[in-house]
Amino acid sequence: MEEEQPEGQHQPPSQRDLLTQMTELLAEQARLELKTRQLEMNAGAGDDEFGRFVRQLLPFVDNYSHLLDMAREQSHDPELDAWLRNIEALYFRIIRLLEDFGLRFISSVGKQVDLDYQEVVEYRRTDEYPHNTVIRELQKGAVFRGKLLRDAKVVVACNE
């Protein structure tokens, strides 16, 4: 008999679920690396196409990062730890590859809000941070070859 969870709460993913998701991410990564190499071959004529590819890739990168964060929070066995280290290494390899081609993630937390690069989704009353300081990043922003691909979604301190 399955216990019902209170509304708004969910069970953490099982180790099997995490392994399944990680395996799916590896397959997706291989597909994306192939697409990246194909686009690189056509780089002269394909800057706009490559920019569209990078923009479409951002949700995948977000999900990959979120999955890694969830997996780090779980208590797991040595086998899963080894999987996680390998998955993290692959994630950072993807990020370095994208950075080599001109992608830069916007670093927001702890800085004054910049509406040219950040979308404020919440103002939070607090005296712990200076007014208009980004206190949480809900979604990373990204710049590709000097062009804004996506605003960062941020929570900003409000104390005035």
Describe, in plain words, how this protein is organized in 3D.
The protein is α+β, with helices and mostly antiparallel strands and 160 residues long. The chain folds into 2 domains: 15-101; 118-158, no CATH class. The protein has 3 helices and 6 strands; from the N terminus they run αααββββββ. The protein has helices at 15-41, 47-73, 78-100; strands at 103-106, 118-125, 134-139, 141-144, 147-150, 152-158. The strands form 2 sheets. Strands 1-4-5 form a 3-stranded antiparallel sheet. A 3-stranded mixed sheet has the order 2-6-3, with no helix packed on it. α1 (15-41) runs antiparallel to α2 (47-73), α1 packs parallel to α3 (78-100) and α2 runs antiparallel to α3. The radius of gyration is 19 Å and the shape is flat. It starts with 14 loop residues before the first helix and ends with a strand. The mean pLDDT is 85.
Please specify the SSE layout and strand pairing.
Layout: H1 15-41, H2 47-73, H3 78-100, E1 103-106, E2 118-125, E3 134-139, E4 141-144, E5 147-150, E6 152-158
Parallel strand pairs: 2-6
Antiparallel strand pairs: 1-4, 3-6, 4-5
Helix pairs in contact: 1-2, 1-3, 2-3
Structural descriptors:
48% helix; 3 helices; three-stranded antiparallel beta sheet; three-stranded mixed beta sheet; alpha+beta; 160 residues
Strand order of the largest sheet: 1-4-5
Poorly predicted residue ranges: none
End-to-end gap? 52 Å
Number of domains: 2
Taking all Cα atoms into account, the compactness measure Rg is 19 Å
Output the number of helix runs: 3
Rough outline: flat
β-sheet strand percentage: 15-25%
Query: What characterizes the major β-sheet?
Result: 3 strands, antiparallel
Structural class: alpha+beta
Q: Helix share of residues?
A: 40-55%
Order of helices and strands: HHHEEEEEE
Whole-number average pLDDT?
85
Number of strands: 6
